[in-house]
Amino acid sequence: MGRYTGASCRQCRREGTKLFLKATKCFTEKCPVERRPYAPGQHGQATARRRKASEYSKQLREKQKIKRIYGLSEKQFRNTFEKVSTQPGITGHNLLAALETRLDNVVYRMGFAGSRKAARQLIRHRHVEVNQKSVDIPSFQVQPGQEVRLRVKSREQVSVLTAMDQSSRGAPLSWIAVDKESFSGRVLEKPARTSIPIAAQEQLVVELYSK
Fold first, then answer.
1. What contacts 120, CB < 8 A, 6 or more positions away?
2. Which listed site, 10, 27, 72, 116, has its alpha carbon 20 to 30 Å from 3?
């Protein structure tokens, strides 16, 4: 599977907003999105002065933004959409809920990793357990009631302790419960749209894929 290996900040600049792909820089004045609020490349500034974007362009950019926030490939994102499109309820909300309950995102939301990319690395290296069983698949869907925790031998990592210290400054999410003393957490329920803290218009993605 192809993996993006370029600068994360270029992706944020391309979407015109912070995607929080690198927690260490997104919260500082050195964030490139604030210093250079236009698309990357030699034609980035000229692009911002072009004519009004078409509906297709808006839909595509919204899809690219959500895909990049969660760090998925096009195939992974499309497969997730096709899976939730058969479920009852609002497809856009179901899509975001499915992305939020991926194991890598849950580990990130619980504060055990500073970014989703760092969370995937923890999972791949078998530092994470679900219901006391080691899971090394970042796309694993965590169900309500399941417990996610770090292995005992993994709890003294500097990156983990730093991430937990930084996460303590943010507001907790209603659909997860975290016990930092035991380095564990639990998904309480399927996240509602109001409990998903990303600025996205998921309905545009539904319209794009429905063509």
1. 71, 104, 138
2. 27
Q: Are 26 and 13 in contact (CB under 8 A)?
A: no
Query: What residue spans of the chain are helical by DSSP H?
Result: 8-15, 23-26, 32-35, 44-47, 55-70, 74-84, 91-100, 103-109, 116-124, 158-167, 202-209
Distance between CA 187 and CA 176 in Å, rounded? 5
pLDDT digit string (tens) for 20-50?
A: 565 555 445 556 555 565 566 555 555 555 5
pLDDT tens figures, 133-163: 999 999 999 999 999 999 999 999 999 999 9
Q: Torsion over CA of 131, 167, 109 and 150, rounded to 10 degrees?
A: -20
Strands of 49-143 (E only): list them.
Answer: 128-130, 133-134
pLDDT per residue over 13-27, tens digit each?
555 565 556 555 544
- Give me the residue label for tokens 């400054």: 169
141 forms bridges with which residues in the sheet?
Answer: 102
Q: Is 70 exposed, middle or buried (0-12, 13-18, 19+ CB in 10 A)?
A: buried
